[in-house]
Each structure stands twice: as structure tokens, then as C-alpha cells.
Amino acid sequence: MWITSRRIVPVRTDRLFTNFQKSPVDRSFHRQLNRVAASLTCPATPTNRIVYGELVVKSNNKIKRIAVLAYGSACYVMFLGVFLYAIGFIGNFAVPTTLDAPLQGSIGMSILVNLFLLTVFAVQHSVMARPTFKSWWTKFVPEPIERSTYVLFSNVAMILLFWLWQPLGGQIWNIEIAVLRGVVYGLFGFGWLLVLYSTFLINHFDLFGLRQVWLYVRGVEYTQLKFRVPTLYRYVRHPLYVGWLIVCWATPTMTIAHLLFAAVATAYILVAIQLEERNLVDLLPGYAKYRSQVPMLVPLLKRLADPSSPSVT
User: Fold this and answer.
1) pLDDT confidence of 173, banded at 50, 70, 90?
2) Is the pTM above the cut of 0.90?
3) What are phi and psi of 175, to 5 degrees?
4) Are the C-beta atoms of residues 261 and 178 closer than 8 Å to each other?
5) Which of 8, 57, 63, 283 has the most other CB atoms within 10 Å of its CB?
């Protein structure tokens, strides 16, 4: 009997050695071998078929769960590396390639390359986040790893930008006073902390796909996060984007390339907010009211009066 991934196929053990039967001695010898083989072979009864089938299915499911967890974890670790590299890339320190450097080659071609890289990231980041795309995409990508795959594609888009970015040289402004430079770098660091902190307010691990794969490994069905208002979201609807804007513009030396990066990133954020909120209004009851009470990016002087009101997640 052979056990395959789909079914159990019984094998006639009394014919295992018939090809070699040529004499009476051979026939007697092989009859004895066939009896031994038959005694060692588990009979292919319906009960055995069910038991072995269940073992194969359970084994395959376990392997699949381990693979999903490994994939999601790898995508997240990759994100951590990209995040740390981005700090050095935009801040111009500690990494091989940076946003600002002297111009090399044609300025026109360099600008086109940079615009292309920024467009690739913007299109990937927005299109793959839309519910319509997700509904189509999950026909090919299993739902537990859909978010991790989104993170993977975002990582690849950022790595391409790090690798192929073309510095343009030139200066728009340059702060030479050491104290002021320190203040601007402090603001730059604050922007990154705000970005990271905002992700934890809305559930960091769900945002980057780890919650989805962990629930799948445990055999628990995924549930949508509840709509609520944590701390900073009572002052602005998008503190994460506020952090990104600070990161883009807080630099003691603004070059042409840095200005291009900051301007395109700002335009993308303003467009992305409109697309995102259009979906949130449709998906989350109460978001329209929340949007009317809380500003988009510029904080209120005092927080939203009703702390129980729903918030963007």
C-alpha cells in the first residue's frame, strides 16, 4: 500500500516478486517472500484510509502554518531594516547612499529618475491599500499574508529608491549655527519617533501583517480592529503623516534633491489622505462625524471633547 498526499493506493503484495519466478524452487521461495510481505503490510481498509488521510492533511496544515509565520516574520524584519536605513538615507548619515550629494550626470535625467522612483512608491503604497485591489489580490494571495505581501512590496519600492536615487546638488538653505542645526536634527528625530509611536497607537503588528499571520498560526479567525480614538488621534486625524512631513522637511541643509523629495512626498500624503478617508467613511460608521470634529494635520489646541468617540485606525 502506497500513501500519497491525496489517497491511499493498495498494492498487491502477492505479486511483488512474480517477475523473477522461473523454476519450482524460485516459485516456492518467492511464495514465502510474498507471505512475509503480506504480513508486514497494513491492510488498506476504509478506516485506515481515513486515518492516514487525516495525518497527511494535519501534516500539510502544520507545514503551511509554519511557512506563513516565517514569511510574515521575514517581511517584518525586512521592514525594520528598511526603516533604519531610511533614517540614515534622509538624514544623510551612517549609510552608503543618501538623499543629498553633489550632482553626477545630467540634471534633467536625474530628476526624471527620481520622479519615477517616487511615483513607483506612491502608486504601490496607495493602490495596494485600496479595498477594491485587495478583493482582487486575495484571489491569488492568501488572506493571512496579504498585508505582509503589501509590506514586502513597500520594502522593495523603498530599496529601489535607496539604490537608484540621483543626488542633484545645490542648496536652498543651509543652517550654519550649531545650536540651530542641533534643534533641526532634534526635530528630525522627533518626526521618526512620532511615525513609530503612531503605528503602535493603531496596532503596530496589525499594520505590518504580523497579527494576521499569528492569528492564522493559532487557528483563530482574523477580526477587524475596533474603531477608536487613542491619544494623538484626538488632536489630528493623521499623526503618522504629521511625523512623515516633519521627517521630510526638518533638515539643516535643504538641497534640490531634498526639496524634490519633500515636495513630492507632501503632495502624495495630501492625495493619499483623501483616498484613505473616502474608504474609511464607507467602512467605518462614525468616521464622517469624527472627520468633522478633528483637523486633518494641524493639531487642535485642546483635544476632542468626547474621548469615547471613534477614531481612525
Assistant:
1) very high
2) no
3) -85, 120
4) no
5) 8
